[in-house]
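pinned: reference chain
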Amino acid sequence: MTKQSIKITTIKHNYEQRELTTAATGYATAIENNYGTKLGFGFRKPYLEVLDVALAKQLDSLAIAYDTADVTIDTGSYVLSAAQQTAIKDKYELESQFETITFA
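pinned: its structure tokens
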């Protein structure tokens, strides 16, 4: 069992309607860890939903390897309230694989 330090980064892509194409307006959210592993992606999905999927994937990966981790979440341009941060911490810090969760 090893302990890792994992940084989860959020990248938000905004799309604009272009006159001459049928490109959709909206945004896409991609979440990856510091190892380059894509953990979550959502086109016009709520950020918390995409983050929840990403954290669950990271948890599965740690559980399979019997590893633990201190996790730092960089929310990018998204702003999470204190209540939202607390809800995420309460949900995932119960798991033995995530020792601490902090927000950058």
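why pinned: The mean pLDDT is 88. The two ends are 26 Å apart (CA to CA).
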